[in-house]
Each structure stands twice: as structure tokens, then as C-alpha cells.
Design brief:
- This protein has helices at residues 14-31, 40-49, 103-117, 136-143, 163-173, 194-206, 222-234, 283-298, 314-323; strands at residues 5-8, 57-65, 71-80, 87-94, 122-129, 147-158, 181-186, 237-245, 251-260, 266-274, 304-310, 326-337.
- By secondary structure, it is of the alpha+beta class.
- The protein has a twelve-stranded mixed beta sheet with strand order 1-2-3-4-5-12-6-11-10-9-8-7, sandwiched between helices.
- Bound molecules: coenzyme A.
- Coenzyme A is lined by residues 27, 90-94, 99-105, 125, 127, 136-137, 139-140, 143, 343, 345-346.
């Protein structure tokens, strides 16, 4: 019979936070030993922003210790506050030396109880599945009664991108995009673009293939964009934005990249969206080309850019393949009702 002592992790309690981070980081290294995962200050800021009652989400972070007080399991709930009131997003990891002893099951039960206490009815978790390695997270998710809601495919692009390839692609796209202008920036969103950006973020939440994901429309305004930008600044992430504006200066396409400033080798693709009524003008490709060029200029040490797309998102995948991205595994999304059955231990 396992016993795990659960503690709540406060971002300003350095000792508990440090132990929690060590478990998360060690578990992340198992799947992909070569690449940096979330950095400690990024997670700490995520928790700090999650304790702001006016922010877009609340967080709960839990640490599990074994009978000897050793940290063995770490988990986090993100609870959306503006929308999706039934949802709790879960991240759950067990220290590599402590697997298959029931700690994951125990910590999941504790997170589930916190989600129930917060009035949530659905848990959602993502499992990283690098190529060729059976993921423990998938077997665990099936065992605890979760079902797979969507498969996303991860693709990576070597940076800096090939300049000739970008130029040829751009030349092929520009004739389709008459009447639009492109604009890029680094850091926080320029004030005059906040409303347009909020509208595209709202659309992004429902205009992408959602499979069986239990997600509903997000509520966005200029303030929420400012909060998102402020989090990136506090996390020391350098962000690059690129947009297309139509003849009335309305924002109709958006893409965003992010780089951890202290460890810029790996960059991340964040949202990309073209407003439905402006699709077919190659704007998705053009904003991505503009963002990639700006990224190469402001972050020359970045070597890899990772993006995730639903496997059925044919248009976005075609754009990414044209840019030179290659597949690098999958990420599966899992849902379970809060209070759902616990694993029967075999
Ligand atoms: C998934 C994870 C949290 C499981 O932690 P754990 O403490 O080993 O899980 P438990 O001991 O509670 O396992 C419960 C059951 O899940 C199944 N299971 C867990 N890991 C498994 C594996 N590698 N292969 C097959 N089945 C597995 C088993 O049925 C297990 O019961 P058993 O050991 O009696 O056979 C851990 O492997 C991990 O941190 N993985 C990386 C992060 C991740 O994928 N997290 C989950 C999604 S957020």
C-alpha cells in the first residue's frame, strides 16, 4: 500500500518549490533528455500569475512525498477563470526513480479532489510521445479511465531557416495577398493592435480542429492580451509577433513565436490564425515567414522551433511542411470526468 504525503506548493516557498521543480524536470528529461523543458523561473511566474484573482486562470500546485519525506510526485492544475468553467487542466509527473509504485495514481486523486472543490467537472491532460518510445503517460491515462480526445503532431524546424527557401515561398504567396500589409514586432503587443489581437485569440479558441477536446469559446479583450504579454515578460520569454492587416487596418492574421531568453536554443510556435473570411490568400504562410525572419534577427542563437498541430489540421500542416518542418513525435490529449474511476491496482 502506498502512502504519499501531499503538500501545496507556494511559489515563494523556495524549498518546496525547488523540490516540486526537481520532480517535474527529472520526469521531463526521461522522454526527451536532449532538450530543455520549462525553466524554474517560468514555472514560478506561471504560479504567481495563477494566484492573481483578476488573471485569466488559477493554479494549484501539489507535491507528493514518500514515507521518508523524499519528493516523488509533482502536479499542477490550471483552472480557467474567464471561460471554460467546467475544465481543469492537469500536469502530473512522477520522479523517474519512483515509477510504478502508485504515486501517480495517488497524486491524481489529490488533484482530482482539488478540481472537484473548485467546481470543475472535466480533467484534461497532455502526454508527450516522442517517436519510437511507448509513453508511460498513455498507459497510465488508459488505466485511470481517461479517453483520448485528440492527437497532435509535433514538428520541428531547424533555425535559422533557409533564407532561399523562405524567399521562394514568399514569392509564390505574395501574388495571392494583394491588399494586405504585414507587420511584425518583438515583446508586448503594440497598443493599437490589442483589440484585433483579442478578437483573433477568441476565434483561435474555437476555429481550430478541436476533436473531442472539451473546450468552449474563450473570452478575450485588450486587458487579457496585456496579461498574457505581462506573463511572457515576467517569464523572460522573448516573443515575436507577425500580423496581416487588411485595407481597413483590421488584423486578419496572426502568428506568435516565443523564446526563453536565458536558454534560447529552443523556440516555440504559439498561436497562428487567419480569420475565416480571409483564408485562401496565403496569409498564414506569409505571417510565419515574417515572424521567422524577425526571430532570426533578434535571437540568432535559436536552433530549433517546435510546433504542435492537430493531426487533422491539414492546412496548417501543409504550411509548416512548406516551411521545412519535420515530424518529431506526437502529443495526445486525454480527458476524464472529475471524480472518475481510479485505477484498480493489479
Ligand atoms: C505517467 C506517470 C505519471 C505514472 O506515474 P506512476 O507513479 O508510475 O503511476 P502508477 O504507479 O500510479 O501507475 C498506475 C498504473 O498505470 C499503468 N502504468 C503506469 N506506467 C506504466 C508504464 N510505463 N507501462 C505500462 N503501464 C503503466 C499501470 O497499469 C499502473 O499500474 P501497475 O503498476 O499496478 O501495473 C509517470 O510515468 C510520468 O511521470 N510520466 C511522464 C509524464 C506524464 O506522461 N504524465 C501523465 C500525463 S499529465
Amino acid at each position: 500500500v502506498v502512502g504519499v504525503r501531499i503538500e501545496q506548493v507556494e511559489p515563494d516557498d523556495a524549498a518546496t518549490f525547488g523540490a516540486w521543480f526537481e520532480v517535474l524536470d527529472a520526469a521531463g528529461q526521461v522522454a526527451r533528455p536532449e532538450e530543455p523543458d520549462w525553466l524554474p523561473h517560468e514555472l514560478r511566474q506561471h504560479l504567481l500569475h495563477g494566484s492573481d484573482p483578476d488573471g485569466p486562470y488559477a493554479t494549484v500546485a501539489l507535491l507528493g512525498r514518500d514515507d521518508d519525506g523524499r519528493p516523488v510526485a509533482a502536479g499542477r492544475l490550471d483552472l480557467p477563470l474567464r471561460d471554460n468553467p467546467e475544465l481543469a487542466e492537469v500536469d502530473l509527473r512522477v520522479a523517474p526513480g519512483s515509477l510504478r509504485r502508485g504515486y501517480g495514481t495517488e497524486l491524481l486523486a489529490a488533484l482530482d479532489a482539488r478540481a472537484a472543490a473548485a467546481g470543475r467537472t472535466t480533467l484534461l491532460a497532455y502526454v508527450d510521445e516522442p517517436p519510437g518510445v511507448p509513453a508511460a503517460g498513455r498507459a497510465f491515462a488508459e488505466r485511470v479511465g481517461a479517453s483520448c480526445a485528440q492527437l497532435e503532431v509535433r514538428r520541428d524546424l531547424d533555425l535559422p531557416p533557409d533564407a532561399d527557401r523562405l524567399a521562394a515561398l514568399e514569392a509564390a504567396c505574395l501574388p495571392h495577398a494583394g491588399g494586405y500589409t504585414l507587420r511584425t514586432w518583438t515583446g508586448s503587443t503594440p497598443e493599437e493592435l490589442l483589440d484585433g489581437r483579442a478578437e483573433l485569440s477568441r476565434r483561435m479558441s474555437i476555429d481550430v480542429p478541436l476533436g473531442e477536446l472539451p473546450l468552449s469559446e474563450e473570452v478575450w479583450d485588450a486587458d487579457r492580451v496585456r496579461q498574457k504579454d505581462a506573463l511572457a515578460v515576467d517569464q523572460q520569454r522573448l516573443t515575436v509577433g507577425a500580423v496581416a492587416l487588411d485595407g481597413q487596418d483590421q488584423m486578419v492574421a496572426l502568428t506568435e513565436l516565443a523564446v526563453p531568453r536565458p536558454e534560447p536554443v529552443r523556440a516555440y510556435q504559439w498561436d497562428t490564425i487567419v480569420a475565416a473570411e480571409h483564408r485562401g490568400h496565403r496569409l498564414g504562410t506569409l505571417v510565419k515567414i515574417a515572424a521567422l525572419r524577425r526571430l532570426a534577427a533578434v535571437s540568432p542563437r535559436s536552433r530549433l522551433l517546435s510546433t504542435w498541430n492537430a493531426q487533422e489540421n491539414a492546412h496548417m500542416i501543409a504550411v509548416n511542411e512548406a516551411l521545412g518542418f519535420r515530424t518529431a513525435g506526437t502529443e495526445s490529449a486525454w480527458t476524464r470526468p472529475v471524480g472518475g474511476r481510479r485505477a484498480a491496482r493489479g
